[in-house]
Amino acid sequence: MRAARTSKVAIIGAGSVGATMAFATLMRGTARHVALYDINTAKVRAEALDLVHGVQFMPPAQIEGSDDIEVCRGADVVVVTAGAKQKPGQTRLDLAESTVGLMRTIIPQVTAVAPDAVYVMVTNPVDVVTRAALAISGLPPNQLFGSGTVLDTSRLRYRLAEESGLAAQNVHAYVVGEHGDSEIPLWSSAMIGAVPLLDWSTTHAPLLDAASREAIATEVVEAAYTVIAGKGATNYAVALAGVSIIEAVLRDENRVLSVSTLIEDYVGISDVCLSVPTVVGADGAGEKLVPPMTPAELTGLRASADRIREVLRGLGF
């Protein structure tokens, strides 16, 4: 029987995503020790102080915030949220160069104090950043992976649940590929309850027909741009998505999540990080599942991989 992990979570970056993820981790009782790290001393200490002032209203936990990387020492899970902020109209891939440069500084520092942690990259563009972080760190792909399309998958399931009138927990569908404009909803393997999604419109006309699916796919792709245009950043849903990944690791849940991992010989795709349904447990990212895909979906997934790979080549990876 594998020994259960302890529960120290270190979060790199105390911006809106990092601070919200710390809050969600504490409120869900996911970890007994949450450490926030940021180079902005005043900000990280203030965020930690604000959180600790509410300690009597949450499950027992230790909370720290520091500009010293030592605060991350011994962490079981490290979540990296630090990076350039995405501006209205800017794609995730536009952020690549400055964010990868930041990773060259952060990753060696944190892996030195938490060498055995499972690393979850959340910083955008997450697929590019994850591949770069693997190269910089030298860690195995199971130990360092990205949050990928876990959030996009949640957005898709929400819209399908809204259209079908059922609970989101009864919708089983995945978004794969890039966490970004070239991502692909896998309609051919999607299920609503026990009913294949592509059969749904034959008995529930005209819901979820081809036109509806295309509109939903566009909404999912553009969701982050809509939120950023209205409030400047996405933070709540991405934090909850991150916490679901943390829990899968700390609780050894073996959950199937669409995280971004290094792909080798997956439906003809290799040497790139992108999202596919992956078993996530105590050892990090495990087996990659291969759902049925139509030729069009396979073509889209391969085009998404090429798009990510092109950016990586431009950055020297």
From TrEMBL:
Alphabetically ordered keywords of this record: Allosteric enzyme, Cytoplasm, NAD, Oxidoreductase, Phosphoprotein
Binding site for substrate: 86, 92, 124-127, 152-155, 234
Domain of life of the organism encoding this protein: Bacteria
Record-listed beta-D-fructose 1,6-bisphosphate binding positions: 157, 172
Gene3D superfamilies: Lactate dehydrogenase/glycoside hydrolase, family 4, C-terminal (3.90.110.10), NAD(P)-binding Rossmann-like Domain (3.40.50.720)
Entry keyword Cytoplasm: yes
Pfam families: Ldh_1_C (PF02866), Ldh_1_N (PF00056)
Summary of activators and inhibitors of this protein: Allosterically activated by fructose 1,6-bisphosphate (FBP).
GO molecular function: L-lactate dehydrogenase (NAD+) activity
Sequence positions bearing Phosphotyrosine: 225
Domain Lactate/malate dehydrogenase N-terminal, chain residue ranges per copy: 8-146
Swiss-Prot/TrEMBL catalytic activity: (S)-lactate + NAD(+) = pyruvate + NADH + H(+)
EC number in record: 1.1.1.27
Active-site residues (renumbered): 179
InterPro entries: L-lactate/malate_DH (IPR001557), L-lactate_DH (IPR011304), L-lactate_DH_AS (IPR018177), Lactate/malate_DH_C (IPR022383), Lactate/malate_DH_N (IPR001236), Lactate_DH/Glyco_Ohase_4_C (IPR015955), NAD(P)-bd_dom_sf (IPR036291)
Lactate/malate dehydrogenase C-terminal domain boundaries: 149-310
Subcellular location, record wording: Cytoplasm
Pathway assignment: Fermentation; pyruvate fermentation to lactate; (S)-lactate from pyruvate: step 1/1
Job of this protein: Catalyzes the conversion of lactate to pyruvate.
Family: Belongs to the LDH/MDH superfamily. LDH family.
Subunit structure: Homotetramer.
Database matches in NCBIfam families: L-LDH-NAD
Protein name: L-lactate dehydrogenase
Lineage: Bacteria, Bacillati, Actinomycetota, Actinomycetes, Micrococcales
Gene name of this polypeptide: ldh
